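Problem 12. The chain below contains 181 residues. Write out its predicted structure in token notation.
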Amino acid sequence: MSLLETDVPVRNVITTDPTKAKALEQDVRAKILDMLADEELTIEEIHAELERRGDRKAETTVRHHVNVLKDAGMVEIARLEEAGGGTRKYYKSNTRVFSYELPDDADDRLDGASTQLRDDLRAVLADLLAAHGDEIEAVAREMKPCEYCQTQHYEEFIVRELVNRTLTDLGEDGEFADLLS
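Solution.
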């Protein structure tokens, strides 16, 4: 006899590749991505900013964390400068991590917006799949299985990535800010 039985719907989906997931295993790396989202910084500047934020790390440790993010493709060298007989590297993030918590009543307050967006997205996705379904399926056939999952949802992952990248582009182009102001 079961003491509790309830239907638990999926409410959140996180899309990323395994390399990026491993790179974010340590919270200091998310902090570094946040720092580098809007500004180019050197290892020394990242080190100082982490200390200012209360994270005391050795500069070599900071360098290691930046290299992990760089190897995962989340941080790039944005600028090189000559400095005292050497080269100073400035790093910039090409990845944003949003890690917020919505207020408790957000689901109720945003229900109308969610319903409208669902209806609008259904039509957009139908058009997208009608125009590009073959390309999406071809890419899906080339994907490697997720090392964590038994079930594979390649096409869904690809469509979510397309939507995410498009939203990111709109944000970077300033169109989100324009619409929200």
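Discussion. The chain has a mean pLDDT of 91. Students who got a different answer should revisit the alignment rule from Section 12.3.
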